C-alpha cells in the first residue's frame, strides 16, 4: 500500500478585504462625526484686593449664608431655607423697592447651591443690583 503524502499547503489569509472594510469604517466615522465647539461665557470675577472698601449705604439688603445653609437677611435668621421663605423675607425687608443694592455673602464651606438659590430668588423678584461679597484671606505668618 503506497500512500502518496503530499505536503499540505499552509492556509493563507487574504487581508485585502479586511483592510478595505476597516478603511471604509474609518471614513464613515470621520464623515459622520460632528465636531461641536462648546460655547463659552467670559466671566470677569471681582478682585478683593484691587477694589477699595465701600461704605454700605443705609438702605442695603444683605443675605448671609452659613455653612449649613441657614439664611440670614440683614442679620435676621430665617425659619427655613425654602425659596418661598427667602422671597417673602426679601419682599418684607425691601418694602417692594427692588432697586436697593443686595449683597450676598456666604461661608467658604457653604454649598454653591445655597448661593445660587439666593441669587435666583433675588433675580426673580426683580433685584438688578446684586453683588457677591469677597473677603481677603488672612495673611499666613
CATH architecture descriptor of one domain? 2-Layer Sandwich
Mean pLDDT: 81
Unreliable runs: none
Main sheet: which strands, in order across?
A: 3-2-1-4-5
Distance between the termini: 103 Å
**So how many helices?**
3
Beta strand count: 5
Give the overall silhouette: rod-shaped
Order of helices and strands: HEEEHEHE
Give the C-alpha Rg: 33 Å
Overall SS class: alpha/beta
Highest CATH level, the class of one domain: Alpha Beta
The third-level CATH topology of one domain is: Nucleotidyltransferase, domain 5
* Beta-strand residue percentage: 5-15%
Write a brief structural summary.
The protein is of the alpha/beta class and 141 residues long. The protein contains 3 helices and 5 strands. 30% of the residues lie in helices and 13% in strands.
Give your account of this protein's structure.
This protein starts with 15 loop residues before the first helix and ends in a 9-residue tail after the last strand. By secondary structure, the chain is α/β, with parallel strands linked by helices. It has a domain at 61-132: Nucleotidyltransferase, domain 5. The protein has helices at 16-32, 83-94, 112-125, and strands at residues 61-65, 71-73, 76-77, 102-106, 130-132.
